[in-house]
Automatic annotation (TrEMBL):
Domain of life: Eukaryota
Residue ranges of every copy of the ABC transporter domain listed in the record: 13-65
Entry keywords, A to Z: ATP-binding, Nucleotide-binding
GO molecular function: ATP binding
The protein, known as: ABC transporter ATP-binding protein
Gene3D superfamilies: P-loop containing nucleotide triphosphate hydrolases
Amino acid sequence: MLPLKVHKYADDVSRAQVKKLLKHVKLSHKVGAYPAELSGGEQQRVAVARALAHNPSIILADEPTGNLDDYSSDMIWTLLKNANEHLGITVVVVTHRIPTNLGIKYRRFNIEEGVVYEAS
């Protein structure tokens, strides 16, 4: 709820949004858990929920699946894909590994020796 409180959302609106987002990331059962009580994958899913909390127009994600197992990685990619497809959010991801089954149109850029170019 913290990002919503910072943006001065009413408590009832914040609670409803948190409930909806935790359900979306399949963590409703962890509503009272502290970060240290969550696995790495669960923490990443909470981070995606937090990023979605105030309906942004863009999400910038730096290696969102870097240290996750395949199950958690797939879930994070699905959440980001759904944010783009269903909510119209632009998602910019910096990663070393794009999943082969992403199933979404995307543009890929590479950086080599300080030069950015679009890969084909």
